[in-house]
Each structure stands twice: as structure tokens, then as C-alpha cells.
């Protein structure tokens, strides 16, 4: 249980939160991000795709811009204004050197001390398979943290004027099946609910219920339920 886990270290001032798709960070992690930004920490978002394949009745060329706009508004709801997109193809993200290079470039640019990554594990628990995009982005981001620190890996980034960054102190895996730390998000559930509810088009396509109702259900589930401490768990290393 997250209530039994030690607090995630707070000796950092800048974070980069990486996700495969718009809405990924809003399934729990946004509550922690709201707590961080309220405490004066700087958080940037990096989306590997635009989520263009995520709405069954909206073609990718129309869904992509809609989902990008929803993500920017969602980020603003928890105090994040720096939102970047890499434009890898949604649903078929390739874990390889191109992705690692793109991630390393943005880590060097953002110069974070904390990097939040999607779960690289195969499942979210019994009967809940993790998507290929999440797993690929999670693993590639973990590798890219090391790549960002080494000027001899992707030396072309130095030629671009992007200098190495070895200042990442912690990598925090969101929605991990083996969490090690937690963040107290008491008082920040409402911000997280508002953040997820900004994904109106996406949530409406999934479920006919009002989006705020859906968002509240998700945030309560991912922050410890309606009773007891409100916490978000991470696997930290």
C-alpha cells in the first residue's frame, strides 16, 4: 500500500515528466505534479506521440491536434506550461536509437533532476496488460537518462549545441507494479480531476458518462481511494 511507502525524495527543483500519449500523466501522476508545482518546483511535459490513434471515430489527422490542445489545457490545470511533443507515431512507437536520441535531446534541454517515466513493466497488475507504447517509452527514457549524460553517445546532439546533462538524481516510474516511494497529494485531487477532465473529446469517446464523473473516479482510484491518505506511488531509482 502507498501509505506504507517512504516519501519520494524532495531534494530537486526541476522535473521532466515523459509520457507516450496525451492523458497518460493524468491517470494519477498529475496529482503529484500539482503538489510539486504548488511547492514552487518546475515541471515540464514531454509527449512522445500526439495520441492521434486514440479515438476510434476520429481520424488521426483530426485527432492529433485535438488531443494536443487538450493536453496543453490539462497541463495548465496542474501548473505546467512547458509542454513538448516529439510526434512519433501513436500505437507503433519503436523502442530504438531514434527514440533514445530524441529523448536524450529533450532531457539535455530541460536539465531535470527528476525524470518521471511511464511504466516499462508488462502489466499494471493481474489481468491489466500494459501497452507496447508505454513499455517502449518507459524503457527508452530510462536509457536516455544515461545517454543524456554521455557526450560520446549521440555526439550529433553536441553539434546541435545541446550539451550533455548528467544531473538527473532520480527516475520515478509511474503506475509501477513494484512501487518504492509515494507522494502525498492531499489537497490536490481536485486539480488532478480538473486536469483529466480537460481530455473531454478522448473521455467522451470512451464512456458516455460526464467527463468530470469519469475523472473523479480515476483520480480517487489512483490516489488511494476515497478514504485515508491521498498518495501517488512511484518506483524510484
TrEMBL record:
<keyword id="KW-0862">Zinc</keyword>
<dbReference type="Pfam" id="PF02585">
    <property type="entry name" value="PIG-L"/>
</dbReference>
<dbReference type="InterPro" id="IPR003737">
    <property type="entry name" value="GlcNAc_PI_deacetylase-related"/>
</dbReference>
<protein>
    <submittedName>
        <fullName>PIG-L family deacetylase</fullName>
    </submittedName>
</protein>
<dbReference type="InterPro" id="IPR024078">
    <property type="entry name" value="LmbE-like_dom_sf"/>
</dbReference>
Amino acid at each position: 500500500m502507498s501509505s506504507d511507502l517512504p516519501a519520494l525524495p524532495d531534494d530537486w527543483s526541476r522535473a521532466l515528466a515523459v509520457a507516450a500519449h496525451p492523458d497518460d500523466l493524468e491517470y494519477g501522476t498529475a496529482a503529484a505534479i500539482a503538489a510539486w508545482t504548488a511547492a514552487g518546483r518546475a515541471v515540464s511535459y514531454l509527449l512522445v506521440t500526439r495520441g492521434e490513434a486514440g479515438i476510434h471515430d476520429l481520424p488521426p489527422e483530426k485527432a492529433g491536434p485535438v488531443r494536443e490542445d487538450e493536453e496543453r489545457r490539462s497541463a495548465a490545470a496542474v501548473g505546467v506550461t512547458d509542454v513538448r511533443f516529439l510526434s512519433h507515431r501513436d500505437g507503433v512507437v519503436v523502442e530504438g536509437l531514434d527514440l533514445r536520441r530524441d529523448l536524450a535531446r529533450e532531457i539535455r534541454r530541460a536539465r531535470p533532476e527528476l525524470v518521471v517515466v511511464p511504466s516499462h513493466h508488462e502489466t499494471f497488475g493481474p489481468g491489466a496488460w500494459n501497452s507496447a507504447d508505454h513499455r517502449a517509452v518507459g524503457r527508452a527514457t530510462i536509457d536516455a537518462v544515461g545517454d543524456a549524460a554521455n557526450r560520446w553517445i549521440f555526439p550529433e546532439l553536441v553539434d546541435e549545441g545541446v550539451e550533455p546533462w548528467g544531473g538527473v538524481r532520480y527516475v520515478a516510474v509511474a503506475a509501477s507494479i513494484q512501487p518504492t516511494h509515494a507522494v502525498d497529494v492531499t489537497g490536490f485531487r481536485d486539480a488532478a480531476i480538473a486536469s483529466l477532465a480537460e481530455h473531454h473529446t478522448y473521455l467522451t469517446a470512451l464512456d458516455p458518462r460526464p467527463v468530470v464523473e469519469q475523472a473523479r473516479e480515476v483520480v480517487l482510484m489512483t490516489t488511494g481511494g476515497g478514504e485515508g491518505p491521498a498518495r501517488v506511488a512511484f518506483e524510484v531509482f
